[in-house]
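Sequence and fold:
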Amino acid sequence: MIVAANPLHRAVCRTYPFRRGRWRLIDLMRRRVGGRVLGRDMFGQRLLLDLGNYVDCMVYLDGAYEKESVLALEAVAREHGCRAMVDVGANIGCYTLFFARRLGLDPVLAFEPMTRHYRQLQANLWLNDLGGRVQTHQLALSDHGGEAVMHQPPTRRRNGVQFNTGGARVLDEAEAAEGPGEGETFRVPLVRFDERFTLDRPTLIKIDVEGHELAVLRGMPAALAGPVRVLMVESAPPNLTDVTALLSGHGFRRRDELRLPCDNWVFVKDPAGGTTDA
C-alpha cells in the first residue's frame, strides 16, 4: 500500500536556505517520515520511494541522492561527449534516470543484483517512460562468471523507521566461507562485462558496488581500452590506489579537483597517460 508522507517535512528540507545546520535538519526529518510514496525529485523525475530506506528518503527530503556528484558527473560527461552509459550498482535508478532523461544517453545499461532494488528500478523506469532506452540486468559484474554470496548488513533503524539497503555487497570467497555474521545473505549471478556486452560509442560508466569495484573493472578491459571516456567510481582506501593504477594503465586520469562526497572519484580518458596517486 502507498502511504502519503507529510509533505511539510519535505518542503522544510528542500527550501531551507542555509548550508549550516542543513544536514542536522534532514537527519531530524528522516526520523519523522515513513511509508511509500510517489514523488518527484529536483530534476523532475517521477519515483516510487520507500521512505524507510536511506537513499529513497534522501531523494524525498533533499530533492536528490548524491546531487553534487550527479551534477558534476553531468558536466564531465557533456565535456567528453558521452552518448551511452553503464550504471553498475544502479539501486533504484537515481543516476540511470537522470542520464537517460537529461542527457538523452542511449543505450543505458543498468546492473542491479538485489531483487528489491531491481523491481523498484523497473517501476521508476516505467513511471518515466524509459523502459525502451534502458536495458536492465539483475546481475553483479565481476572479474569472473558464476555465482557469489551477497550480504545485506543488519537493518539499523532510527526510532523504527530508517534503514539502508545500499550497503549490500558481494563477499569474496574467504568471507563467504567464514560467514558474514548478522544480516541477510543471498546468491547472485556474476558476469564479466566483456564476455556479455560491447560498447560502440563514447560511454560514461558509474560504479557503486561497496568495495567490489576492482573486480568489476578487471572484468571490462576491452571496454576500458575502447569507447569508455568517463568513469565515476565509489572507492575508499586501500582500493582507491589500486583502482587509480588500473585505470591509469588504460589511459585515464583522476580528476581530484572535483572533490566529490561519498568517496566518489571521477576518471577521464587521458591519451597521454598519467594519474594522481592516492
